[in-house]
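User: Can you help me understand a structure? I only have the sequence.
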Amino acid sequence: MRGAVKLTLLSWKIVNKLKNPTYPSGTNLFKGKGVILTAAAGAGIGFASAKRFLEEGADIVISDAHETRLADATKNLSDLDLGNVSSILCDVTDDKAIDDLFNFAKSKLDSVDAVINNAGLGGECELINMTNDEWSKVIDITLNGAMKIMRAAIPVLETSQGCIVNNASVLGWRAQAGQSHYAAAKAGVMALTRCVALETVEKGIRINAVAPSLAINPHLAKTSSNELIDHLVSQEAYGRGAEPWEVANVILFLASDLASYLTGEVISVSSQRA
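Assistant: Let's start by predicting it. Here is the structure, written out as tokens:
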């Protein structure tokens, strides 16, 4: 009986640690390296990733399509007084803007070692009520934008034999009403990751993706109903969504030499019940 009580107490401590994760300390995992991050302004996975790369010793170039938000993010990251932070506006659907991003990054970074492809657009709408424009906008930003960033990144990364990490979603695998456009786009990002990874092996470039289930951030409330968010939270084993930095930690792993054997993989960042 005592053993059972002891085991129960131990389990309680483990669960509580998982429900209240501790923010990690930097270990200079990316010291001397340069990283480009798209859609890195705001309070979501992109900004959290930028902050974690800085904490791990990287110099970074961040981009976003929103000027004010990008300026605020640049200031907040620079105020950390860690690595060098440079920023440039970039609409990932605009070929010229993407060329400008990579030319700017090459002028600011000693080397480009990783490109974090984070841009995406969500929303909640059933297909029967969806306009062509609503469908196309999500596909254009989330899937076509990812493709264009990857295409521009490959020749730049050949020199450093660096890597690309795409931001997909578990919706690329799973079904959810009202998310057909977003799910289709993220499934496309997964397929793009797998196929292009095979094309870049001989160039020494790795390409992988993360597939978060639910990362809690203020933008989520703008694109999803409270009822949907509550339902999604209830599906998570820990009874909470991921902190954006928890997803960022997996992005850092995939971008690091610790993941040297991985390419063409999509890593689920989720505690969802099956």
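Now, to help you interpret it: DSSP finds nine helices and seven strands in the chain. The chain has a mean pLDDT of 90. Let me know which part you'd like to focus on.
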